[in-house]
Amino acid sequence: MNSKERAELKGKAMKIDPIFNIGKTGITPEFTTAIDDALRKRELIKISVLKNCDEDLRELAETLSQRTHSQVVQVIGRKIVLFRLNPELHKEKKEPSKNLKKKNLYSRKNADSKSRRNSESKKSFDSSKSSNGRKNSDGRKNK
Fold first, then answer.
1. Is the pTM of this model over 0.70?
2. What fold, for 3-87?
3. Do residues 61 and 72 touch, judged by C-beta distance below 8 A?
4. For labelling, which of 5, 21, 103, 112 has a CA lying 20 to 30 Å from the CA of 34?
C-alpha cells in the first residue's frame, strides 16, 4: 500500500465509527474471527482499544493484521484502523458499467448529434431576434 492509498483510507476511516472494542482480555480467537468476518464485509474497519487494555497498541495492530491477513492503515490515539481488499465486493459494482458500454450510450455519434442540435437551436434563436434584440408582441422583428 503506497502513501496515496493510505491517505485515502485514512480519510474514509475518519467518517466511520469503531465497531469493536479491545478490553483487558486482549485478542481472543473469537475476537479475531469476528474481525475477519467484518473485514470480509466492509474492507475497512476501526477498532477502539479501551483504557484497561495493558498491551501496546502497535503490537496489537500488528498481531491483528497478521492473523486476519490485513494491513494496518493507522494507529492513532487508542484507535486501530485495518484494511483488507475484498475483490468480491468490487465485482458486484463493476457489472452495471459493462452493460452501459454494450449500449454505447456515450458514443461519439451521440455526442455529435447533441452538439448539432444545440447549435441549430441557437441559430434559430438568433435569427428571431431583431437588430436591437426586441420583438413585437406578435413575434415579428422591429424595423
1. no
2. Translation Initiation Factor IF3 (3.30.110)
3. yes
4. 5
